[in-house]
């Protein structure tokens, strides 16, 4: 694709994120129920009448939504981008986009003003520098272009965070930006905000290990610098299970996700 201008810089923690998602590429689709629901909701939120000449699926993962976008916009050229080579290897043979490229949302390997729609579902919570993501989105969008994203806010996996807190003081759950931070950063971005709303989504599990297994299969388990090293001993696991049981409802053990949907437009 002629718009590619070079690879984005990779920090060590990004390499860890990329490696974790690469490892998860083959298990991801089987456990991505929430990701499907959220991505579909994001597609439904796209402005009516939108007809992009070129779209970018930012943090495309296994490419499920690249294939959806290709169906929604059959005339458009699609670009699927992810930081994890393993995900791209999984997505590429399934098609959907004209180009599958490795890159970082904070430093896009794309020329200015080359896309009409940036679609990004549940990827940007992995980007520490969200102002850089917004700057890059503004740079690569054509005037009138739309940046549609879903991500996660603070309060996500609060039950797991609180349960670990009762066991020890380590950071076992990834940190998420607050809704207020998203609001402030989007307002400062120079892009016009068409929508910014938070919708809680609750999954239920019969057993805690189903949740932890799912997070691992998604590649979304804790990668924070404050995480404890080594194996988790049986006594601590028993304490964690007991703490999480306090949250049990008739539907099972809840896992709450605070999903933020953003729709921003680059003014002409
Ligand atoms: C939870 S998956 C979502 C995948 C896909 N959008 C979906 O909804 O099925 C998050 C994806 O974001 C990618 N990702 C994380 N940080 C990224 C970054 N800085 N730049 C580009 N992609 C990134 C991961 O490699 C992973 O494939």
Task: Give the total of domains.
Answer: 1
Number of helices: 9
SSE order in H/E notation? HHEHEHEEHEHHEHHE
CATH homologous superfamily annotation: Vaccinia Virus protein VP39
CATH class, please? Alpha Beta
Q: Based on CA inertia axes, which overall geometry fits?
A: globular
Question: Beta-strand percentage?
Answer: 15-25%
Biggest sheet: strands side by side, in what order?
Answer: 3-2-1-4-5-7-6
What do the pLDDT scores average to? 90
Termini separation? 25 Å
Q: Biggest sheet, in brief?
A: 7 strands, mixed
The tally of beta strands, per DSSP, is 7
Bound molecules: S-adenosylmethionine
Radius of gyration: 19 Å
| Proportion of residues in helical segments | 25-40%
- What is the CATH architecture assignment? 3-Layer(aba) Sandwich
CATH topology: Rossmann fold
Oligomer: single chain
Regions with little confidence, pLDDT below 50 for 5+ residues: 1-12
Overall structural class, as computed from helix and strand content, comes to alpha/beta
């Amino acid at each position: 694709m002629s718009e590619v201008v070079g690879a984005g810089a990779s920090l060590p923690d990004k390499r860890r994120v990329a490696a974790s998602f690469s490892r998860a590429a083959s298990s991801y689709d089987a456990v991505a129920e929430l990701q499907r629901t959220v991505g579909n909701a994001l597609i439904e939120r796209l402005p009516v009448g939108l007809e992009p000449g070129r779209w970018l699926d930012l943090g495309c993962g296994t490419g499920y939504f690249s294939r959806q976008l290709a169906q929604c916009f059959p005339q458009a050229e699609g670009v699927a981008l992810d930081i994890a080579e393993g995900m791209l290897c999984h997505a590429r043979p399934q098609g959907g986009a004209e180009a599958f490229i490795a890159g970082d949302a904070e430093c896009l390997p794309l020329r200015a003003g080359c896309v009409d729609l940036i679609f990004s579902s549940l990827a940007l919570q992995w980007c520490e520098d969200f102002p850089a993501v917004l700057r890059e989105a503004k740079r690569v969008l054509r005037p009138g272009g739309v940046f549609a994203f879903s991500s996660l806010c603070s309060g996500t996996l609060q039950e797991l965070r609180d349960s670990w807190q009762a066991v020890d003081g380590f950071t076992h759950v990834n940190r998420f930006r607050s809704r207020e931070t998203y609001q402030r950063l989007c307002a400062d971005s120079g892009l016009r905000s068409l929508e910014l709303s938070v919708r809680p989504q609750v999954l239920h599990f019969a057993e805690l290990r189903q949740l932890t297994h799912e997070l691992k299969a998604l590649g979304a388990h804790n990668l924070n610098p404050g995480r404890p090293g080594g194996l988790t001993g049986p006594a601590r696991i028993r304490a964690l299970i007991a703490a999480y049981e306090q949250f049990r409802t008739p539907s099972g053990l809840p896992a709450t996700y605070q999903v933020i949907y953003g729709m921003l437009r680059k003014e002409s």
